[in-house]
Each structure stands twice: as C-alpha cells, then as structure tokens.
Amino acid sequence: MSALTLILIVFGLTAVAFVLARQRSVALVGGPAETRNLHSLPAYYGAYTALCMLLPFFLMLLVWGMSQQSLIERHLVSTLPDHYQAMEPDELSLALSEISNLATGGITGFGEPSEEALASAAEFNRLQQRSRLYRALAGLALVAAGFVFAWRRIRPDFRARNRVEKMVRGLLLACSMVAILTTIGILLSVIFEAIRFFGKVPLSEFLFGLQWSPQTAIRSDQVGSSGSFGAIPLFTGTLLIAGIAMLVATPVGLMTAIYLSEYASSRF
User: Fold this and answer.
1) Are 46 and 19 in contact (CB under 8 A)?
2) Measured between alpha carbons, how far is 231 from 234 in angstroms, rounded to an integer?
3) Chain-centre distance of CA 97, in angstroms?
C-alpha cells in the first residue's frame, strides 16, 4: 500500500471517527437540546478524537520515512556476497544505487547487470513491499489505538476544548521549532563550510582578489587545479546590477507615488 493510499484511508477513518465522537458526546447528555450540559461544544469532542488518531499516525510516518531507506539498505548489504561487503563506502554506495535503479526499472548506466545485482534488486523490492505492509499495519494500529483512547475519555465533564487547544498549540510550537532548527542548521552549515573554505583560501585574497575562477580539480594533475577566489568581481557585479535597477526603479517608483498621491483621482 502506497503512502498516499494509506493517508487517504486514515483521513476517511478520521472523518468517520469525528462524526461518531460528536454524536456520542451529544447522546451522553440526552440529545441536542441538552448540549449545554457538555463542558465543550460537540465538535471539540470530535476534533479531540481526530487529533488523537492523526498525530501519532503522522509522527510514525515521519519516523518511518526517515529510517526506512537506511534500514533496508543495511539489511540488503548483510545479504550481499562478501566481495560487496568488502567494498569501500563510495563503491558500495554506487553498487546500491545500481541495485535501486534495477529494482525501480530505471537505467543503471553500468552496462549489463550481473546475476547478483538482479537477485539483489528482487530482494530490494521484496524488502520495500514488506516495509510498506508493516507501515500500513503500524499506521492503522496507531489510528485504532488513538480512537479507542479518545472514545473512552468522552464524557460530559471532559474538557475537550482545552485539550484540543493544547494539542493545536503544541503542534504549532513543533512547526515553529522545525523552522527555527532548520534556520539554525543552515546557518551552522554555512559557518562550517566558510571555515573550511577560509582554511584553504586566505581572507585577504578573497576580499581583495581581482579574479574569480572557482575551478578546482579533484586531482593535482588536472587542469585548473588551483582556482582564483577574489570576490571583488562578485561585489562589483552585484553593485552594478543593483545600481542599474535603482536607476530605473527609483524615478519610476517615485514619480508613480507622487502622481498617485497628488494628481490621480481617488477613483483611480
């Protein structure tokens, strides 16, 4: 079962659970005329049930998606012949890419695949199918457990609105933390790469160099093995483009603003 199919099924089950939980909260107080005896509106009981089903499910999908490929590859490597396991990491990664391409029916680019590669591709497909099956079973089990947990807590005095607001607040906090951590990760990546760069290129050469040609070779005998990293051409080009843009945008924008504020009719 694909992830999209599983998500659609779970959304369908969640919609049904929302309706059932809302109806149960109304039935517990004797009908729609007595909903004033509920602590929260009936929709909050349905929303609480839906969140108890969806949040663990999507957390499981996130963890599964992050770990599935590495676990499959690790298990696949353990089943490969000894000469595969003796490969260097780069060579093994290349071999796994060939197996993955064979498994998905793509072009390998390595010539005629060997019998071992074809057998490994079949094993790769089998592991992926098993992983999708286990993912579906785990997801549906979590959804069912969330429904049972929420269903048993539905009572007239249950503070569904407070729980829903707390869960939504936590979800929004998690989303904001993801954005913050992503920004921090990008910043640290830039800092570490800059430190590595300036460990090889002097800062004075970068700031005052007059030639920009970042063409470094992998081997010392290749052409262009020593690049030039003077940033003045970059600064000059940026300032030139910004200056030309301002020469066009400033008078046009200024005159447009003056016309709109002083001369144009209010209807215009």
Assistant:
1) yes
2) 5
3) 22
Give CA–CA dist 32/55, Å, rounded: 29
The partner residues of 229 in beta bridges, in order of sequence, read: 212
CA distance 181 to 192: 16
Yes or no: say if 9 and 138 are a contact pair by the CB < 8 Å rule: no
User: If residue 9 lies in a helix (H) or strand (E), which one and from where to where?
Assistant: helix 3-28
For residue 181, name the pLDDT band (cuts at 50, 70, 90). Answer: very high
pLDDT tens-digit series, residues 80-126? 766 666 667 666 677 777 777 776 665 555 556 667 667 777 777 78
Euclidean distance between CA atoms 116 and 43, whole angstroms: 57
Cβ neighbours of residue 54 under 8 Å, at least 6 residues apart? 10, 14, 143, 146
Cα distances (Å, whole numbers) of residue 232 to 160, 195, 208, 244: 62, 20, 6, 18
Distance CA 213, CA 227 (A): 6
* Cα angle 254, 239, 234; round to 5: 155
Q: What is the pTM of this model?
A: 0.64
Site of tokens 């001369």: 263
Beta strands in the chain (DSSP E): 212-213, 228-229
CA dihedral 233→235→198→193, nearest 10 degrees, is: -110
Write the single-letter amino acid at 198. Answer: F
CA distance 121 to 154: 50
Q: Which residues contact 63 (CB under 8 A, 6 or more apart)?
A: none
- Euclidean distance between CA atoms 93 and 90, whole angstroms: 5
